[in-house]
């Protein structure tokens, strides 16, 4: 696998990791660029030979030899160019894949809250566009090190060899274009960053449009949403145009500046040929010098282009760097042993200050089922998520005497299993969705959640694909599949948030029986709106406006009128 010293948040590490590919790039790049020098040399020689031929001092055979050698050298240069490009592309593809793998690894380990805070569109942009831009910068850098760096050096040496004074005079201009390119860096970066932000907003708007399409249609909001989307699109287009202008308008200007030296070559080079200048030249040397300088100036404008690409890559790198962390897949550790759960004077408030849980205390022993209920939006799901410790709480939640909030995430994962509102099925088979990295079969859990017959009836049974691109499951099927996954990864504390909301009464009752049997030594915290199983709970937590009441079903019936009323409404056959 990968080298231990590899540091994903250091650009150099990616170059080091690909040293073999870069070795081939270096060899083919050197042959290509040194071979390029042969071009101006042959061109000068051929011009000289042509003058000789016309003056009657050269032979046609000599000219033919020269042309043949020129063609062969072009062949060698082009073949090495092909190999260089091939290996540079391979380098870029390898880095791109590796960076995306690392980023993906980090994103899937981020908590729900962190992802929400970051914004889905922004995350998608980071995962795809920023990595692409970053790797593109690295690719251009690798290419230009040879195509520009080595070539420029070689051309410069050749020019100095022919007339060092004229060469120095001409070579003042390319650095001026570099300096200007460097000064323009801020604008390239600024417009590039603005483009990225708009791109993130557009991704979020597209996702929102696709995810909520039915709701918008049913409520007749399509036109409004379309207008909002168009607004995003226009902002994105303007940002893209601005970024593009700064990216593409500058290189021609850099090139013009570099080319100013041609005027000096024509004047001082002409004087050299007339033997009135600094060094006596033949017409062949004049041609070689001019051709060599034109190539040097063209190359130096590529260097300016390289600055732009690297600056653009820097913007992307800054955005993704915090997400590029060593995120080796944490191996699933075995579940912790059963133990007591102790919740003591628990308080919880969201960062906006709104208190949701106020002074809740209860204890649970292995094998107990705790029902949690209360009016809509009273904080039931918040209580469930508190056990995941995504946000800090006050008071204490201990399992086996250890404080959950102070544990390493991996240790906490061994203790608490969680099933939220959203089934969160991924693209994969029914079996893969249940096992999620586990090795053994998933059939037992399919039976526990009463999904056996339905899975058998599917075209490929347990191997049927679900999630994006797979078959469409009903709400109740998706819910049971997600429950099967939670139960498969057995934990001594199971938090199940409304796991039966999409099921009929009989199925719910059957699953509850199976669940009790399966999780005999687990503590189950069952959040639900529907109460007809609550008389089988060991304890019930009633939540209302951040106040909580804990007791047996019978105790709450006697002491909490709202609970008694809700139970009575439901058992009269009212809501289910
Ligand atoms: N991330 C959050 N930041 C701030 N407030 C939140 C957040 N999540 C939920 N809330 C608020 O906390 C309160 C309780 O929400 P919660 O989802 O826990 O209630 P619930 O009882 O599970 O609701 P339901 O009966 O609809 O399932 C609500 O007022 C909600 O707006």
Question: Overview of this structure, please?
Answer:
- The chain is α/β, with parallel strands linked by helices and 576 residues long.
- The chain has two domains: 11-323, ABC transporter type 1, transmembrane domain (ABC transporter transmembrane region fold, Up-down Bundle); 341-571, P-loop containing nucleotide triphosphate hydrolases (Rossmann fold, 3-Layer(aba) Sandwich).
- The protein is built from 21 helices and twelve strands.
- It has helices at 11-17, 19-55, 60-109, 112-118, 120-162, 164-170, 173-211, 213-218, 222-248, 250-259, 261-273, 283-320, 380-386, 409-413, 430-435, 443-448, 452-457, 475-488, 505-518, 553-559, 561-571, and strands spanning 341-349, 355-364, 369-373, 394-399, 402-403, 416-419, 428-429, 465-466, 493-497, 523-527, 539-544, 547-551.
- The strands form three sheets. It has a six-stranded mixed β-sheet, with helices on both faces.
- A hairpin with a 5-residue loop joins strand 1 (341-349) and strand 2 (355-364).
- Helix 2 runs parallel beside helix 5 (120-162), helix 7 packs antiparallel against helix 9 (222-248) and helix 20 (553-559) packs across helix 21 (561-571).
- It is elongated and about 120 Å long.
- The two termini are 55 Å apart.
- The mean pLDDT is 86.
- One of its GO terms (molecular function) is ATP binding.
- This is ABC transporter ATP-binding protein.
């Amino acid at each position: 696998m990968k080298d231990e010293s590899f540091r994903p948040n250091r650009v150099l590490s990616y170059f080091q990791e690909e040293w073999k590919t870069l070795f081939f790039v270096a060899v083919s790049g050197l042959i290509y660029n040194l071979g390029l020098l042969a071009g101006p040399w042959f061109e000068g020689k051929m011009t000289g030979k042509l003058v000789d031929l016309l003056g009657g001092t050269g032979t046609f055979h000599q000219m033919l030899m020269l042309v043949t050698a020129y063609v062969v050298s072009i062949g060698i240069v082009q073949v090495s160019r092909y190999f260089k490009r091939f290996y540079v592309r391979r380098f870029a593809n390898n880095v791109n894949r590796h960076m995306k793998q690392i980023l993906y690894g980090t994103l899937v380990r981020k908590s729900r809250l962190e992802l929400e805070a970051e914004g889905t569109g922004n995350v998608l942009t980071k995962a795809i566009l920023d990595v692409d831009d970053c790797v593109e910068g690295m690719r251009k850098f690798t290419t230009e090190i040879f195509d520009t760096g080595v070539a420029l050096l070689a051309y410069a040496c050749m020019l100095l060899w022919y007339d060092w004074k004229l060469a120095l005079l001409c070579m003042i201009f390319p650095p001026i274009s570099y300096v200007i390119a460097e000064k323009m860096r801020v604008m390239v970066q600024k417009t590039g960053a603005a483009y990225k932000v708009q791109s993130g907003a557009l991704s979020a708007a597209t996702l929102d449009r696709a995810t909520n399409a039915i709701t918008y249609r049913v409520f007749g909001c399509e036109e409004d949403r379309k207008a909002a989307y168009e607004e995003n699109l226009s902002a994105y287009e303007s940002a893209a145009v601005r970024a593009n202008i700064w990216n593409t308008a500058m290189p021609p200007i850099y090139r013009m500046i570099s080319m100013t030296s041609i005027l000096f070559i024509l004047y001082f080079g002409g004087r050299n040929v007339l033997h009135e200048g600094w060094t006596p030249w033949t017409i062949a040397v004049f041609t070689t010098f001019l051709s060599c300088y034109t190539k040097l100036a063209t190359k130096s404008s590529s260097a300016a282009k390289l600055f732009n690409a690297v600056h653009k890559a820097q913007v992307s790198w800054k955005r993704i760097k915090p997400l590029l962390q060593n995120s080796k897949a944490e191996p699933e550790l075995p579940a912790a042993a059963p133990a007591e759960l102790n919740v003591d004077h628990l308080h919880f408030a969201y960062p906006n200050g709104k208190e949701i849980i106020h002074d809740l205390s209860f204890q649970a022993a292995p094998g107990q089922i705790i029902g949690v209920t209360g009016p809509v939006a009273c904080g039931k799901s918040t209580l469930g998520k508190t056990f995941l410790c995504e946000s800090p709480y006050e008071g204490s939640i201990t399992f086996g005497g250890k404080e959950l909030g102070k544990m390493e995430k991996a240790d906490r994962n061994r203790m608490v299993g969680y099933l939220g509102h959203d089934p969160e099925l991924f693209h994969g088979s029914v079996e893969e969705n249940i096992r999620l990295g586990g090795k053994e079969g998933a059939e037992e859990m399919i039976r526990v959640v009463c999904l056996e017959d339905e899975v058998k009836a599917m075209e490929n049974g347990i191997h049927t694909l679900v999630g994006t691109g797979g078959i469409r499951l009903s709400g109740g099927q998706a819910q049971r599949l997600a429950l099967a996954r939670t139960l498969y990864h057995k934990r001594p504390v199971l938090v199940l948030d409304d796991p039966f909301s999409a099921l009929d009464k009989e199925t719910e009752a059957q699953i509850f029986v199976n669940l009790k049997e399966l999780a005999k030594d687990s503590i189950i915290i069952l959040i639900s709106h529907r109460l007809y199983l609550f008389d089988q709970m060991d304890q019930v937590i009633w939540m209302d406006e951040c106040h909580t009441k804990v007791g047996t079903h019978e105790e709450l019936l006697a002491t909490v009128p709202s609970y008694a009323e809700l139970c009575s409404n439901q058992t009269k056959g009212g809501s289910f």
